[in-house]
């Protein structure tokens, strides 16, 4: 998310022309800024920004200086917790005077805080494509580069409805902003796998595993990809590595996946499938697939 210090530095007033409502807004905004700088209680500061928002709402759009005040007004709305209003004013400013790094970051942030993840994702994508990639990364990557949950959910929804380019763009963005962290590469690999780009998915899984060679879930997911491609021998090896990477009690998904390969002549690496499944179900009693496998094993015996 954008930090207050960074926003404050950008949200400066550009005073032009007289007018009672405009003067009221300028005075109230500057008073709120002063209270914020003095580190007054958050409730006091928030209320002060809210008063400046009300003053700006009374300002006629035809008054000189209206559009130059929009960034400050949007920031005031953001500080007062009125994120829908903030996003609206940032968007009007962008449409009227063109985007800036401050406006780009601020609009996306306000939309995310207003729980409009789908709109935030589309705006971020459009701004990145328009030459503001660094500004988009600064907010869409979250505080640590690992992304924001509303945007992840929006990217997943986009891919489910067939907007593959938009969804993959966000997973690629997070892979970059996280410094190609293994978990981000794994998420990108999974998204590629889901849309059938299996060669890219395999390459990305292997890249993630190079970063985290003892990550049991990465090995398991690679095994699932290979199994789906009919490469059972390689899948078996990946599942074995996944299970070996687990710390006791061994209850990860690789156990069941190895059991599924037994009919094809592969050694799961443990003696009793029922006992192995019992460990899984002790740790995860609601694991329906493992319960089904356990019933099948008992019936088969």
Poorly predicted residue ranges: 1-9, 14-20
- The total strand number stands at 0
The total of helices stands at 17
pLDDT averaged over residues: 91
Task: Describe the model.
This protein is mainly α. The chain contains 17 helices and no strands. It has helices at residues 4-10, 20-37, 42-57, 66-79, 83-97, 101-113, 117-129, 133-140, 149-160, 164-177, 182-194, 198-211, 216-228, 232-245, 254-260, 273-283, 288-300. It starts with a helix and ends with a helix. The model is unreliable at 1-9 and 14-20 (pLDDT under 50).
Labels describing this entry:
single chain; 301 residues; mainly alpha; elongated; disordered N terminus
Write the layout of secondary structure elements.
Layout: H1 4-10, H2 20-37, H3 42-57, H4 66-79, H5 83-97, H6 101-113, H7 117-129, H8 133-140, H9 149-160, H10 164-177, H11 182-194, H12 198-211, H13 216-228, H14 232-245, H15 254-260, H16 273-283, H17 288-300
Concise summary:
The protein is mainly alpha-helical and 301 residues long.
